[in-house]
Design brief:
About 25% of the residues lie in helices and about 25% in strands. α2 (about 125-135) crosses α19 (about 815-830), α9 packs across α10 (about 505-520) and α33 crosses α35 (about 1235-1245).
């Protein structure tokens, strides 16, 4: 019949609801066939694979047949043929884009050109079925990932995303809670600093940040997408503060349950007794080799289809004998035979050389050796090759047999020998071509006894996880398998068999190498390379050789369909059996039907098609027999996929979309018993309507996994039991790894494989089913050769589905994203399951299995290791992860009295601690005398004028400037005179000091104090980066209301340059004085003396980690108290030298540079951190050279030394660097101690004499720059391990080191003398008990007196400096640090003999993330992320519109960036139970870091929202 005449005219497609599900009703009028009434049939998705038509018998001959789309690119198992594919395939119908799917009825399709593919097996039904699945989705814009231009290959991204209204604070859609207004602490100033490397103007606060519309619209799209409710809804339960229980999915009360009776063991027909079987396979070979030597055994073909060699039985016998003789007698090692009977030998033969393989296999059997056939390793790092090497090693293989041609093609080492492959044992290679073998003497006979339990051969099998095991097959099993196959297939002597399969394993080996020899059959072996060139070759060989049987897979039938046009002369009438080896695969039914439909007119009889099922462990499980061999008629089962997902068989009406049609795989093998048992746990027999694992008891199964006794017992010695626990049989069964059931007529049905099973929640899904649905979404247009891999990964205690596809080289970004979003929708609709990750990789980049298919386990391994290198990724954790703990709900507030009583009952003391009392430590007269620092400097200049105070080093380590007491005093006098005469400033005016680190800065500071001015130290702008650093300088000058700027000549020129004018308004600078030239030689008449100690001494301006710029006021009393505490804690005296490698502009760094030396009289060796960029060892060399007992640095300096000097400790030792002088090395910080960094620093420089106990940390903040400082005396810092989950609930629970979720915290130094600390509740402001997390409050003489802000808004922040507890000690005035921490009384004693109280800082309150009702600290999430992949150099997290945004710096190639998306999402889910909303991948150095080495996360957030990061990739997780 002509294809255009048989084409159905589609009148109407009605989309309708049926029992709450979508189904199609297709009304079709087939005028040419005279069918006058409407016929109704469903368009459905073959859920294991391809959607296809299921039809009524009346329409069998005329309805469009479904194509096996899964085989469409069956490169999953076989490469695409290079010829013979009709070009009209490229014009195949596409699914319209989302914009076209608004109506249910698609447009009328145009007629195809006359040269189009034969309509009788054309399938556009997958298009319509997926349309049905997608129809219920309204068009919903998803945010498309953003790629950097350098990564983009195709058209722009921006065109895809429509502009959206900016919603600065959309509702929280991620927690399911009612939105609470989150009260943050008031911001300190309205101005933010500018992150490093940004261009453009200064950013504002988050409230007014100029958010880029492209970024915001994508985030809004993401939020809109996430607002839809998750399906299925889960029953939530309360979770208390200590436990984060994962949501357990409750069983659906409506889920189908098995209702049938318990199955009974199914017995196969007995093995025929009267048949004269040969006693063994080798006896058969000897018989045919000697009695029928000319009979053809095997014909090998070349890539043109020409027969290149026919192996006769005589040749096979004689060459096998020669090989056996050579193996046993001619191979020696140290005068001993290399091999002894029972040894294993590897067989390495290409798919194109069946002759040599057959000789090698039988030669090994004759020599009583055990052949282990493996694939030819093409490169040293083939996918799975390492695991094969492990198998060879565990089998003790020392010899590999191969051919001359194959050996020449193997990778070689420099010696010319075959290279050793990764993971392989050392092998000797023996070429077995005729000239290399020795003819045995006439009287030599092999001793082979190929009967009994001894191992005949080992077949390799790759498991789901990628490990390779060897299945041992005994001689008895081999013989029984050959007999059973002979009986089941009705093989007879001299029959011809055409074999397309791999002859080294599975059915190809059993039929084409073993059973064929038993029956003296002639096998025509079709190589893989020939099938790629000519997919019709096997049919042509069946025709030309009049073959009676053929052994193929579904893909071979599919490709022959595509290539059969114009081949009118082929005939398949000689075939009595067409064995479909993968007939157990759910998609094979469509290939079988389509193939029959086309080739029935060419002699193919319907009963000839015989699907079979097999597994490496049980060998052949079942095979369909033709009627003449006693087989019942074939059956089909149309099963509900929802039922199957619960493991229950429900025969469905054919009108539903979600059904799976499977064909039977025939009857049980002769002599075998079969049962179906539950997949997990005790092997209970299944009910008759229940899906389980098929188990076989037979003498023809494998016997063990070589060398693996434990799993051998589980698989090969299973004893099925009845519901009552009684064994169902007295003999053990072998598990097949096939999932199925026994249907009518005792036929076996298979619905999937255990290896492809994915259990999501309580439902099971099969990987092949997901592949099929994905392929149904425009496969020919987008997916390269249909190459799709589906597997599951375990994230948060559940399987998550990952789909990886190769995209065509010409696919655009919009194409790929549209395809991904539609695949997600189709799978969600058809399978009711979410895809966790969908990744697209470039064509031909997925690891390949031996015959061109995708190596699934290797693909999974690459995904988990971040080595997949995708070009597009879409993660859907929001929709997939439905087992997160319930969001924490705030408890009703507990009153103060209850808190106190609660702590008393619990036996906890109030968390309060203090340093040593100042009154006992120091003479009060001296304290009064040293009340004002200018007085101290004058006194030192008078009493010890030549005592050196400061010593400044440059990058070369040479001293560039020094200052004695009198020199500093005189310089300060001259600066004071210049201020009064030239700048005309008055006492109390503010003066900005813009200096590089050095003595000039210190002199200018004391000059200001001498004249009564208030100094403000400001970091100078960077000459190469004026646009971003100068606005901060200008801002501080303006905010501080400075009346004058003191600086150097070079910086003064910079401030007034043209480049500066482009960044700021240079006309509005206050008067600028160059202290080098403008200073008069005379000294001032009198030095200003403050009227009171409470007068302002200086302003300390800094940018917090949250990006807020603020200045704090330090009085003279606070300044001298600060110096006094540090002097006492560190035991600083005039005879001491300390080394300082800190920035001198704010906080403790400023105090150590400018204040402490003058107060205590010690000598400070000043090392500017900037100089370390050109000489990393400068600081450590200085410490060694000046024998400093005490040294200070920042985390950024420590990190620079650890990274830069890691491999140079030997060189430094040779240069004489010795750090044994150091008593204490303190890291100045305003954050949680970085334990990993301090430990690696200590370990690294232990070789240079650094004492293990020397390194410690300090803690200070704006309100008090020095709260804790280790000092030179007192107990060592203690480390505790706390439960990270409890911290999220503001609880501290101590755990053992190495416990799950444990977080190490180190004490932040000892509390300074005169300092009191208490832990207060962040909201009630009441005191907390020991080991409770709360805000650290501090009371001390050196607290700052308040904020200095531009608008005089001190009253807003008065609470920070003058807070009082809501109950308990309500009289003491405290300053709130804004940091969370806890106190813990240790077992150690301090200098006074009291037990030591340790303060642990957890993190900044302003930086904590409130997510899911819990408090997270960014550093914890960042630590997890940095561990996720070696290419992540740095990480920072923040929230925006209740979404967690993770920014990672990529230290690697841009094309590897997308590997990080899934790993980052996984690790945050696993360790923190948070779903990442956006993953941003940027270049190294983009995350802004301040001078103390702390991340400026709010700067980063502003930069992201203003689209200033120039990201490599931005992934919006769905």
């Amino acid at each position: 019949m002509r294809h255009l005449e048989t084409k159905a005219k589609i009148k109407q497609i009605v989309l309708m609801k049926h029992n709450g599900r979508l189904c199609f009703v297709l009304f079709s009028y087939v005028s040419k066939l005279g069918l006058k009434q409407h016929q109704r049939f469903s368009l459905m998705t073959l859920h294991a694979c391809i959607p296809f038509l299921t039809y009524y018998p009346v329409l069998r001959a005329c309805v469009v047949r479904a194509m096996d789309v899964r085989a469409c690119g069956l490169e999953m198992e076989c490469g695409e043929p290079s010829t013979g594919v009709d070009p009209s395939l490229q014009a195949e119908n596409r699914i319209p884009g989302p914009s076209q799917t608004t109506t249910a009825a698609p447009k009328q399709q145009k007629l195809r050109p006359t040269n189009s593919r034969d309509e009788r097996f054309r399938s556009d039904v997958h298009t319509e079925a997926v349309q049905a699945a997608l129809a219920k989705y309204k068009e919903r814009k998803m945010p498309m990932p953003s790629k950097r231009r350098s990564v983009l290959v195709h058209s722009s991204v921006e065109t895809y995303t429509p502009p959206a209204d900016l919603h600065p604070a959309p509702p929280d859609v991620t927690t399911g809670l009612v939105e609470h207004s989150h009260c943050e602490r008031p911001q300190l100033a309205s101005v933010r600093g500018v992150p490093r490397g940004y261009s453009g103007s200064v950013l504002e606060t988050a409230g007014g940040v100029p958010v880029n519309s492209r970024v915001s619209s994508k985030i809004q799209q993401l939020l809109n997408t996430l607002k839809r409710p998750k399906r299925p809804p889960l029953k939530e339960f309360f979770v208390d503060d200590f436990e984060e229980l994962l949501e357990v999915q409750q069983p659906d009360p409506n889920q189908p349950k098995p209702e049938g009776s318990q199955m009974v063991v199914l017995k196969g027909e007995p093995l025929a007794l009267g048949t004269p079987w040969p006693p063994s396979l080798l006896a058969a070979l000897q018989r045919w080799g000697t009695m029928q030597p000319k009979a053809p055994c095997l014909t090998a073909l070349d890539t043109t289809g020409k027969a290149i060699y026919t192996l006769t039985y005589g040749k096979l016998w004689s060459r096998s004998l020669k090989l056996a003789y050579t193996l046993l007698n001619k191979l020696t090692s140290k005068n001993e035979p290399l091999l002894k009977p029972g040894d294993r030998v590897a067989l390495v033969f290409p798919n194109s050389d069946p002759v040599m393989f057959m000789v090698a296999f039988y030669g090994c059997l004759l020599a009583e050796l055990v052949p282990v056939p493996i694939e030819v390793p093409l490169t040293r790092k083939d996918a799975g090759s390492q695991q094969v090497g492990f198998l060879l090693g565990s089998c003790g293989v020392t010899l590999a047999l191969t051919t001359d041609a194959c050996q020449k093609g193997l990778p070689k080492a420099q010696t010319g020998e075959v290279a050793t492959f990764k993971g392989w044992p050392p092998l000797a290679w023996l070429v077995i071509d005729g000239k290399h073998l020795t003819k045995p003497p006439k009287d030599w006979h092999p001793l082979a006894q190929d009967v009994g339990a001894g191992t005949a051969y080992i077949e390799y099998k790759t498991s789901k996880e990628g490990s390779t095991v060897g299945v041992t097959v005994s001689h008895a099993s081999l013989l029984a398998q050959c007999r059973a196959l002979t009986q089941a297939c009705g093989y007879s002597e001299a029959e011809t068999l055409t074999n397309v399969l791999d002859f080294k394993r599975d059915a190809g080996l059993w039929h084409g190498v073993l059973t064929s020899v038993m029956n003296r059959m002639h096998v025509i072996s079709i190589p893989y390379a020939l099938m790629k060139v000519n997919p019709l070759s096997w049919i042509q060989k069946v025709c030309s050789y009049k073959a009676r049987a053929a052994l193929v897979k579904s893909r071979d039938m599919h490709w022959s369909l595509l290539a059969q046009r114009g081949q009118r002369d082929v005939s398949l009438s000689s075939l009595r059996m067409l064995i479909v080896a993968d007939g157990a695969n759910p998609w094979s039914i469509s290939s079988c039907d389509a193939f029959l439909n086309v080739f029935q007119s060419r002699g193919l009889r319907p009963e000839v098609i015989c699907p079979c099922a097999s597994s490496p462990e049980a060998l052949t499980v079942a095979i369909r027999r033709p009627p003449d061999l006693g087989g019942p008629p074939p059956r089909k089962a149309v099963l509900s996929m929802n039922g199957l997902s619960y493991g229950v068989i429900r025969v469905d009406t054919e009108e539903k979309l979600s059904v799976l049609t499977v064909q039977d795989v025939g009857q049980v093998m002769p002599g075998a018993n079969v049962c179906v048992v539950k997949v997990e746990g005790t092997p209970y027999l299944c009910k008759t309507d229940e899906v389980g694992e098929i188990c076989v008891n037979s003498s023809a199964t494998g016997t063990a996994y070589y060398g693996l006794l434990g799993i051998t017992k589980n698989v090969f010695e299973t004893v099925p039991v009845t519901a009552g626990g009684v064994p169902a049989s007295d003999r053990p069964f072998t598990r097949t790894g096939l999932l199925g059931f026994i249907g009518p007529d005792n036929l076996v049905f298979v619905v999937g494989k255990l290896d492809g099973l994915m259990v999501v929640g309580v439902r099971r899904h099969n990987a092949d089913d997901i592949v099929a649905t994905a392929l149904a979404v425009e496969p020919m247009k987008f997916v390269y050769r249909g190459r799709i891999a589906v597997f599951s990964v375990t994230v948060l205690h559940d399987d998550r589905i990952v789909l990886v596809a190769e995209q065509r080289p010409d696919a655009s970004e919009e194409d790929s994203f549209q395809w991904m979003s539609r695949v997600l929708q189709a799978i969600d609709s058809i399978h009711q399951v979410g895809v966790y990750c969908l990744a697209l990789v470039p064509a031909n980049t997925l690891p390949k299995a031996p015959l061109g298919g995708i190596h699934i386990s290797e693909t999974k391994q690459r995904f988990l290791e971040g080595m997949l290198h995708p070009c597009n990724v879409l993660m859907c954790p929001h929709t997939c992860v439905t087992n997160l703990p319930k969001p924490r709900q705030k408890q009703p507030e507990v009153g103060p009295a209850s808190m106190i009583v609660g702590n008393l009952v619990a036996g906890k003391r109030i968390a309060q601690a203090s340093g040593r009392e100042l009154a006992h430590l120091e003479d009060s007269d001296q304290a009064r005398k040293f009340l004002f620092l200018p007085d101290v400097l004058q006194w030192r200049a008078h009493t010890t004028p030549d005592h050196p105070l400061f010593l400044l080093l440059n990058a070369k380590g040479t001293v560039t400037s020094t200052a004695t007491c009198v020199q500093l005093h005189k310089k300060a006098e001259r600066v004071a005179a210049a201020l009064m005469e030239k700048a005309r400033v008055n006492a109390g005016d503010h003066v900005a000091l813009v200096y590089p680190p050095g003595v000039d800065l210190i002199a200018a500071f004391y000059g200001c104090l001498y004249s009564g001015c208030v100094p403000v130290t400001v970091r100078p702008p960077h000459p190469q980066n004026l646009a971003t650093t100068l606005p901060t300088v200008k801002m501080i000058v303006e905010v501080s209301k400075s009346a004058c700027v003191l600086t150097t000549q070079a910086i003064m020129r910079l401030l007034k340059s043209k480049e500066a004018a482009a960044a700021v308004d240079v006309r509005t600078w206050p008067p600028i004085l160059d202290t080098a030239d403008d200073i008069p030689k005379k000294k001032i008449a009198s030095i200003f003396r403050p009227p009171s100690p409470d007068v302002l001494a200086y302003l300390d301006f800094s940018v917090s980690t949250t990006g807020i710029l603020a200045g704090v006021k330090m009085s003279h009393a606070a300044t001298s108290a600060l110096c006094r505490s540090i002097k006492l804690q560190c035991e600083l005296y005039p005879s001491r030298q300390i080394a300082i490698c800190l920035d001198p502009y704010c906080g403790l760094g400023f105090a150590l540079w400018c204040l402490c030396s003058v107060y205590s009289g010690h000598q400070s060796v000043l090392v500017p951190p900037l100089e370390l960029e050109s000489n990393v060892s400068l600081w450590l060399s200085a410490v060694s050279q000046y024998k400093a007992r005490v040294t200070f640095c920042s985390y950024s300096v420590m990190e620079m030394c650890t990274k830069g000097l890691g491999a140079q400790t030997g060189v430094l030792r040779m240069k004489g660097v010795n750090l044994s002088c150091v008593r204490t090395c303190m890291v100045v910080a305003e954050e949680r101690p970085r334990i990993a960094l301090t430990q690696s620093f200590s370990k690294l420089f232990k070789d240079l004499g650094l004492p293990a106990r020397a390194v410690s940390t300090t803690f200070g903040c704006r309100v008090n720059v020095a709260i804790c400082l280790q000092g030179t005396a007192g107990p060592d810092p203690t480390t505790v391990y706390v439960d990270m989950r409890a911290l999220r609930h503001d609880r501290v629970r101590l755990v053992e080191r190495g416990s799950p979720h444990s977080l190490p915290l180190t004490e932040s130094g000892k509390i300074l003398p005169g300092v009191k600390v208490i832990i207060a509740h962040t909201e009630t402001k009441g005191p907390l008990g020991d080991s409770h997390l709360g805000e650290i409050w501090v009371s001390s003489p050196h607290n700052a007196t308040g904020y200095y802000t531009v608008y005089g808004e001190e009253s807003l922040h008065a609470d920070h400096f003058s807070a009082r507890l809501s109950f308990g000690d309500t009289q003491t005035v405290w300053a709130r640090t804004g940091y969370l921490g806890f106190l813990r009384r240790t077992e150690l004693t301090d200098a006074s003999g009291e037990r030591h109280d340790a303060l642990y800082v957890v993190g900044s309150l302003d930086e904590t993330l409130e997510l899911r009702g819990m408090r997270y600290h960014p550093i914890d999430i960042e630590t997890s992320v940095i561990r996720a992949h070696r290419s992540i150099a740095e990480c920072a997290v923040f929230t925006w519109t209740n979404l967690l945004v993770v920014v990672v710096e990529l230290d690697g190639l841009e094309q590897d960036a997308l590997d990080l998306v899934a790993l980052v999402t996984n690790v945050v889910l696993e360790e923190h139970h948070l779903v990442v909303g956006v993953v941003v991948i940027v270049d190294p150095g983009v995350i802004p870091i301040n001078s103390r080495g702390e991340k400026q996360r709010m700067h980063l957030r502003d930069g992201f929202l203003a689209d200033q990061l120039d990201p490599i990739y931005v992934a919006y997780n769905m």
